[in-house]
Structures are given as C-alpha cells and as structure tokens.
Amino acid sequence: MARKDSEKQKKFMSRVFRGKEIFKPLNTGWIDEHVACVREWVANIFFYTKNGRTIMIDAGYNYERLGEKMGWLDIDPVSIQNILITHQDTDHVGALEEDSNLLFKDATVYLSEIENRYLTGRVRRKVLYGFYKLPMVKMDNRRVLLTDGQVITIDGIKIECILVPGHTWGHMVYLIDDQYLFTGDTIWFGADGGYSFISTLAESNQLSVKSLAALERKLKRRTGAIKIITGHTGWTDDLEFAFRHRTELCAPFRKRMHDPNAPYDGYEEEGDTEQNARGIRLIKQIDYAAKR
User: Fold this and answer.
1) pLDDT of amino acid 3
2) Where in this chain does the record put each Metallo-beta-lactamase domain (predicted)?
3) Per-residue pLDDT tens for 192-220?
4) Which of 91, 152, 168, 275 lies 20 to 30 A from 124 at CA?
5) Closest-CA residue to 136 (of 6, 8, 1)
6) Cα 290 from Cα 103, distance rounded (Å)
7) Which domains does the chain have, with CATH numbers?
C-alpha cells in the first residue's frame, strides 16, 4: 500500500470513527526503561531495548514524522536491524513500503509464514466483513518467517512467537523476555476491560474470539507479571482486565462501554509532543468503569 493509501486511510478512518470512543493510542514516550512507543495517528509503534540493542515491533503507517518522533526518544533509525511484525496491515508495516522514507531498508523483518502470504499475493486482505479488499503491501526487506510457538533469540533478547489468527489469517503476537506481550490488533481496551479487536476489520471475528481465549490460557500458565501492550489503545499488567470481555467484539457502531477518555478524533495528535515524550512515563490503562 503506497503513501497515498496511508493518507487516504487516515482521512476515511478519522471521518468514520470520529466521536465513537474507539481509538485511544499511547503518545510517544517510554513505558519503562525497556519499552518505548512512537505514536502515528492512532497506531502505536514499539521499541524494546536491552543491553544496548533495540528491536522494533511493528512499523506503523507510511508516515512522514516517524524519524522525527524516534529522535524524541533518542533512537536512531539506523540502529534498527530487526523488526517484528504482528500483521501486514498498512498501519503496521507502512514504514517498510517501497515508497516510504526507507528508514529501515537494511533491517530484517520477522513475521508469521501464514501472514507472508498476503505479501506474496497468494491471499488478499479483506475488511468490512469480507466486502472490501485492501491494496497489496510491497516491501523489499529480508524476511524471516516464523511459526506458532517458535522461540528465537536476537542479541540476548528472547522472543516467543504466538499465532493468534482472526484479525488477519497469520496475525502473531510476541512475548519478549517472558515479561512484555506485544499484541498488535488482537486486543482492544475499552473503559471496562479488553475485548476482541474491532469487528469491522477482522477476517474472522469467530476465529478472533477463539484465538483470544487460547492466548489467555497460555498466559495464565505463566508465572510472573506480564505487560500486555496493544497496537491502538494502551497497556496493562492486569490479566483479568485485559481479557475481561474476551468473548465480545469491539463493535464500533454499537453503544456500549467504549472509553470516555478517548479523544473525539483519535487521528489528531496535538497532545503528542517532544516535551511529554522526554518527561512523562506512559501510564497503564485502568478500569474507568469501576470509578463511575
């Protein structure tokens, strides 16, 4: 998907979801000493740093300000040699597309072997309950294809790959160093807990719900706290909150507990500033419904 398609998507999505209390992305900044976020409109791009090595999780839109915002975090795009991709939608791979700024042209990209079928043209990405096909994404980066349950290590950073199909057929989440789960478009946080991601954008909502239940079971078998970090809302270390509504869909056009703290238009970025990025930690999502 070309840059013009990223811009087109921004305009369309802004208009359609304005006032729906759906998108509440994190602003640019640090969650803790290991995890940083860059906000691009409603998409969160994450960076995980350990022992002087930084890996990137998802690559956002085809977006002009990515290099600038990475500078707010003192992360040099040239230093990024490894990028984990949850899925191939343009708001997660745009910075890798052929007509992007090619900040990461030498980086190796990791994604599930099933998801790679979209990039080779064997499968077309469908949204709006299968009625609309998205343009094909094209990129030239070297790819490493992953399978469900595979564990890889990059410069001492442990990465467990977990397949969670539904939003796309090959969507994958990544558990890093047994402490940080990057969920892409698997979980959406409302005011009262986590739901299966936005219903209009899934290949199969039924499969999304099934995958979310399986993911919860996997995490409950683990010991120690895990930060659950989402692609378009916030993060939490409260497992019960994250999976509270795992059998329900985020239905954007149905009145329910969305998030009253979400901006009227999530695509407006006035609150995303260098001063805040350097001075304020990104706090976790809380149960706003319980405070009512």
Assistant:
1) 79
2) 42-232
3) 999 999 999 999 999 999 999 999 999 99
4) 152
5) 1
6) 43
7) 3-261 (3.60.15.10)
